[in-house]
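Model it.
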Amino acid sequence: MRQEQKLQIIRTWAKEHKMHLEGYTDEELIEDIWFSYSNNYKIKYVPKEIDAMKNIKRFWLQNVELKSLPDSLCNIQTIDDLSVYRNELTSLPPCLGKLRKLVYLDVEDNYLTALPKSIEKLQHLVMLRAGNNNLTHLPENIGKLKNMDRLFLANNPIGELPPSLKDCSSLEILDLRGTNISTPPKWLEEMPSLKRIDGFPELTLHFQRLLKTQEYGVMQIKFRELFDQDMTQEQIEKKMSGIIGDEAMPLGKFVWSRDWSSIEYYVQWLPHYRGDSHGIIHKDGRHESLPTLPQIGEVTQSEIQLREQLTKKGLLNIW
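Modeled.
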């Protein structure tokens, strides 16, 4: 089928669901398809000609009674954010792994019994939301997802985790609430980045204690290098807690300046102050406060730029 014929089918589909794509001079330039329950329309199918939309980055069809996704969706190599939350899907395209740029995948609240094996090819995937389905197992090679830091599996009849999961070296949050896993495998404790296991508070506490011990120890070394190699343990702890608070210290991210004369830090959601903290600690002892991101309210362009800068520096935790 010719490209123009495909685009005409897409135009008809869009018009049928009042998606207003006709306002664009060239549908190939559209980067987002976004539709949810708030639109009060139901989209029960996606035409196989959808791959005529070659530049889609965000594909969201949420709570629209969608029953299937065509394999042709996998031909849109630009998609980096795919959400089919709260639909009626019983399976996903086997070719899903072809979406090599995919970063966020949300398939929560469907009727899925399995995830496609090809998911192991999604090397850029950071977050996978698959809660509230009928999953009984995970793909055996899920451990190949080295960049995945959040995995949500709540309310699935999963009985065990595949051993390869321990190879997900970036995994920080694992949600196992409402699964059939009664005792998590011991190897979870060996995962280098894991901070939280929802559904097992005693393990979460264990990880937090380990993290606090490890990161606080690293910061003691950094502060000793920054200020004075000869400071006593009491002096170094007083200096650290006086600047930012020893309870909050392990929660943050820290980077050295290029000339090794200062440390810049960013701590999200300080437990006692209910806000973020951002600043630079200079070698001469000066403490310089810097802008933080808002916790509520409308986000401005300057705050978007700040988030980008913090992320680029490695100072921002994304949960």
